[in-house]
Predict the 3D structure of the following.
Amino acid sequence: MKAKGRVQVGADADLTIFDPATVSDRATYDQIAPSTGFRHVLVNGQFVVKDGELLVDALPGRPVKGRGC
């Protein structure tokens, strides 16, 4: 976790570009739906949302494990 949150070459940072005026959760208890208002999301330097579209085949992340996991 020490390498998280820095925007620099070689850093392990995930970035989200969004418009707070348009962010909305569309999911309900009965239906899964992606949120709106997120223009770009990068995980480990790879797009998972690009131009507002979810890239369902993109799986660049790894789970964050706590101590003892």
Q: What stands out?
A: The mean pLDDT is 84. Residues 39 and 51 are 5 Å apart (CA to CA).
